[in-house]
Amino acid sequence: MPFFTKLFLAAVIVTFGLRLWLALRQMRHVWRHREQPPAAFAGEIGLADHQKAAAYTLAKMRPALVQLAIETGVLLLLTLGGGLQELHAASARWLDGELPAGAVFLLALMALLSLSELPVALYRQFKVEARFGFNRQTLAGFFADLAKQALLGLALGGPLILAVLWLMGAMGEYWWLHVWLTWMGFNVLMLALYPSVIAPLFNKFTPLDDTGLRERIEGLLARCGFAARGVFVMDGSRRSSHGNAYFTGLGAAKRIVFFDTLLKQLEPAEVEAVLAHELGHYRLKHVAKRIALLAALSLGLLYVLAQLKAAPWFYQQLGVGAQTDAVALALFLLVSPVFLFPLTPLMSLYSRQHEFEADAYAAKQADASQLVAALVKLYRDNATTLTPDPIYSLFYDSHPKAAERIGRLQPA
């Protein structure tokens, strides 16, 4: 067996084993700590709510294990099993020319990967979420969203794929730098278009009509020096009873969005504190820092792809005979996550640090006790486990553990 094939198989086995071990640790830890809420939440979250959160966490983890097995099986079938080679050959038969055939090949691959995720997504939405009272989505609405996503992906992703493949073939040795500039430009364009063009395709956004809350929010925005095009309420209750808030957009197109479910869950002072946290991300330049990190990572990865693209062994030892730009890109997108998984804790740590910083900012601009009250309500109403496994949390959690987060916000 060739060396890189052995290395790839070893990476697949290690990554699969590590992800399985982490999932089982999480399930075991949550199960063992379901009998009593943490002391930090005594009097705030009752035993029934705590046990519901534990049951909900366990119910979500079971289909996640199935999805892990499916992902690993599909990866091996597409690479060493010859799936990519067959798909590429079929695309070449359908269309003449490397560029259109390559684009169809990549779009077909994305469609196959999406279809492989569909059974678990349906189960999660209509079994798990419904069982715990969170699902508001209909089956027709689910597939309507799926169709919109597919059409949007085709409309936006199709031209991007064609542009990338053209640059890979036409720009010589430094094609990867041109692709990187195109990719970053595309991301910035999506940030600009999302609030006014993309998001309204899936949800209805209406101006906040609560005068008292709007005045409170306007006062906070003035204190924070934040200018937004408007404050909107999104009909999140169409799909789920989970609540959330966020700001989106660039420059003058920035807008603040509250889920209608969140406004029903929280008092005005609590909403203000949650918004102060979200504004903290903006004022502390977390969005810009994440874009810069994405830029650096994508530049490095494209450089690596440029080296692999010219190496025949990269294709042959991963089960593909065809050596084209589209195949190189497909192989790299499939294989790189297996080798990059050990970096997951670093990315999660970076995200958690931003959450702590945004909390600290919110505590200066609003009442910290109101943010604590809001978080406790959201943990309870969203059935968030208060007792995640520490190692699982280290890998996966983009937000700090509940007790640690609350502890930092409360006075010493």
Structure commentary:
The structure is a single chain. The protein has 412 residues and is mainly α. 72% of the residues lie in helices and 4% in strands. The chain is built from 16 helices and four strands. It has helices at residues 3-32, 47-78, 83-94, 98-131, 139-170, 175-198, 211-224, 260-265, 268-283, 286-309, 312-316, 325-340, 344-365, 368-381, 390-396, 402-409, and strands spanning 205-207, 231-234, 245-248, 255-259. The protein has a four-stranded mixed sheet with strand order 1-2-4-3. Strand 3 and strand 4 form a beta hairpin. Helix 1 packs across helix 15 (390-396) and helix 9 (268-283) packs across helix 14. It is globular and about 65 Å long. The chain starts with a helix and ends with a helix. 26% of the residues are buried.
Given the helix and strand composition, which structural class is it?
A: mainly alpha
Termini Cα gap: 60 Å
Low-confidence stretches: none
* Biggest sheet character: 4 strands, mixed
Rg, please? 23 Å
What percentage of amino acids are in beta strands? Answer: under 5%
Tally of alpha and pi helices: 16
Secondary structure: number of strands? 4
Percent helix, as a range, is: over 70%
Give the helices and strands as they follow along the chain.
HHHHHHEHEEEHHHHHHHHH
Order the strands across the largest sheet as they lie in space. Answer: 1-2-4-3
* Overall morphology: globular
Mean pLDDT score: 93
